[in-house]
Write a structure and sequence with these properties.
The chain is built from 15 helices and no strands. The chain is mainly α. The protein folds into two domains: about 200 residues, no CATH class; about 180 residues, no CATH class. Helix 6 packs antiparallel against helix 7, helix 10 packs antiparallel against helix 13 and helix 14 crosses helix 15. One of its GO terms (cellular component) is plasma membrane. Keywords: Cell membrane, Membrane, Transmembrane, Transmembrane helix.
């Protein structure tokens, strides 16, 4: 039977276009910061950005995945109570953010972080803005607004942030400092969230969601829990940033800056799987909860082939134009980043692109707890091996550990997905 992918492709193209613009503006922003901030301060900014990512998932309390899936279950007849589910999500996140703020303020007061107090306040504000926006995105994703849900955070925020930084540097001739950069970032996030609420309210009235195929009455389903999504999100973001935290612990901010630049370039590859999974998640839930497993298999296989194709082309381009790309960030980074460090980081992200679909499939079908255990093992693996590698091989050793970790968690999640969901990355017969 010929499958139709019109809706998925439409969602995918919308996300791709939006994220493409965000990618360009974000890349330009980091080029500007790397050239106009001293290496030590750029490393400090990179560390704060990683810290904010961790704080966001703590304050979200797992809502960004849980809420989308539960609202889709409402639409397919598995459960009821759209308003109650959404209000609970907002309430839990508000409590989590408040507890986080108290812990962060207290930790900084006793010297655990030693961050300037204005920056502490800005970090907490940015965290709150991102949390609110992510919950709004989760609701929109469940109601067929996948692409447009990203407009405020991706397009508006990135444009305003780059514009204010550029105006300050080139027109007002400001000397950039960490405090100024964080203030510009917080202001841009605030503006984007105001716009996000306006866009969502407008579309909710004008574009009601289409009817979905109802789930069979005999279908069984395990109750989803926020706790699995919560711990999974926290472990996931630690797994994504543990390399930065370890380097900050063992090295100086200059080394953090060097590693952050090559990681930023490698994330160009990761964009492929990010875009793919962002659009794939709601589609997986729809097919799984309506019992269309064969169509789910075909959809996943097709998306993986697309990811492989785009990823291979992107890898060749990034490796071929290494010197040109790194020179954009300044002579210091161009000279400091070795070929080995650069190539290993690119290959690690290519592995994530080629094999990264199982994570999203498990999260969207009720098996998120397995992601939790895999990510926990990945964090432990990186901490143990990373501590040893940094001691003997510096940041190149940390890059190799990142590659090992990519093979570990992608391979294991695929094995679990095949056993639990009955879906393979590519349906080859054994």
């Amino acid at each position: 039977m010929k499958l139709k992918y019109d809706q998925y492709i439409k969602q995918l193209m919308g996300v791709t276009g939006i994220h493409g613009v965000f990618l360009v503006t974000s890349f330009l922003t980091h080029i500007l910061l790397s050239n106009y901030l001293p290496a030590s301060q750029f490393g400090e900014y990179s560390f704060y950005s990683s810290l904010i990512q961790l704080f966001v998932v703590i304050a979200l309390f797992g809502q960004h995945n849980y809420l989308t899936r539960e609202l889709l279950k409402v639409r397919t007849g598995f459960s009821k109570g759209f308003s109650g589910i959404t209000k609970k999500s907002l309430g839990y996140s508000a409590i989590a953010w408040s507890l986080l703020a108290g812990a962060f303020l207290g930790s900084n007061a006793i010297g655990w972080f030693n961050i300037e107090w204005p920056i502490v306040v800005l970090i907490l504000l940015i965290t709150g803005f991102i949390v609110v926006g992510t919950i709004r995105q989760a609701v929109q994703k469940a109601f067929d607004q996948v692409g447009v849900s990203q407009l405020p955070e991706k397009l508006l925020f990135s444009a305003v942030f780059l514009l204010t930084l550029s105006t300050g540097v080139f027109w007002l001739k400001l000397d950039l400092t960490i405090l100024k950069v964080m203030f510009f970032s917080a202001s841009a996030y605030f503006i984007s969230q105001i716009a996000g609420v306006i866009i969502y309210a407008s579309l909710k009235k004008k574009q009601p969601p289409k009817e979905l195929e109802k789930a069979p009455e005999s279908s069984s389903d395990k109750p989803a829990t926020r706790w699995y999504f919560y711990f999974m999100s926290v472990i996931d973001i630690i797994d994504s940033n543990v390399d930065i935290y370890l380097i900050k612990y063992f090295e100086e901010y200059e080394t953090v800056a060097i590693y952050s630049v090559v990681k930023r370039v490698a994330m160009l590859l990761h964009t492929i799987i990010y875009i793919s999974n962002y659009a794939l998640g709601p589609e997986v839930s729809k097919l799984y909860y309506s019992g269309q497993i064969q169509k789910l298999q075909a959809t996943v296989a097709r998306i993986v082939r697309m990811n492989l194709s785009f990823g291979a082309v992107a890898l060749v381009v990034l490796l071929s134009f290494k010197n040109i790309i790194l020179s954009l960030f300044g002579e210091f980074y161009h000279e400091s980043i070795t070929w080995t460090l650069y190539s290993v980081m690119m290959i690690a992200q290519f592995v994530n692109v080629a094999l990264g679909a199982p994570n999203q499939v498990l999260s969207s079908t009720g098996f998120e707890r397995y992601n939790l255990w895999v990510y926990a093992g990945g964090v432990l693996l990186q901490v143990v091996l990373g501590s040893i590698a940094l001691h003997y091989y510096n940041i190149t050793g940390m890059a190799i550990v990142t590659l090992i970790s990519a093979f570990y968690w992608n391979g294991l999640t695929h094995f679990i997905m095949e056993r639990k969901v009955g879906v393979k990355i590519l349906p080859f017969n054994r």
